[in-house]
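Narrative summary of target 7.
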Amino acid sequence: MFRYSLLFAMLCLITLAKAGGVVAILEIIPGEENIELTFSEYQLLTDELRNKARASLPAEFTVLTRDNILSLMPPEEEEAECLSEGCAVDIGRAIGAEYITQGYIRNFQGKLTLTVELYESMSGNMLGSFVTVQENATGLLSEISKNTPELFEKVPRAKKVESGELRVESDANLAAKEQVLNNNSPLSTLNSQLTKKSNTSLIVAISLDVLGAAMLGYGIYQHAQKEKHYDDYKKSFDAKLPEAERAAVDKKYDDAESARKSRDVGFIIGSVLLASGITVHILF
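Modeled conformation, tokenized:
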């Protein structure tokens, strides 16, 4: 059952990624032993980093919460191992995040140093970082508030849909295109038509993605119902009821078979819709 839930979560994440970037902010962790901070202080520092990142990024970006990240982790991984130093980029790739950030706290001459690094998950390139030295957690909290906006300015902002692909464009390119579009020329008319077509294709593709994910969710629900009805049937059958009561037992078996067929229909239709959505994303 977990694998179906994980699949559904990944499909939802893919749909979000089509609308904008996905940013994962891992827990701030100790970079060495003997760091005198409590668990709640680490959580507070991480929450501040996430909140400032959310405030700094455009609305189309999705910032994953602590629960989002843990739910997308493979179930056999230990949280401490997954979030250990040096594997942030691998985690970003595993959970489908385009950008990932993690912070480490170490000791330096009796003070606390915080290093926060921002990576592009697929390439592994570090887009930026900041380092601060403070006396205590309160000082680190203040430095996170001050430095986080500048760090997340390094995340590419503008995304345009062209030929079915999401491409990051520089501010200069966007300004030049905007100037062309503002002119009453055949080229600006053509660009306007292409933009409308791309927007329509994107809406259609996202709609197919959402419907496909919903049908897969329906299939997962019917699978759970099938297991329940079958368990009820097996228990009743094992009880060796009198012949007069066999009709009720057979009804449970029929219910299980009906749920199985509904499950298969949900999975088939959901897969077709998702495949159609992906095709529209690629071709249009």
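The chain has a mean pLDDT of 75.
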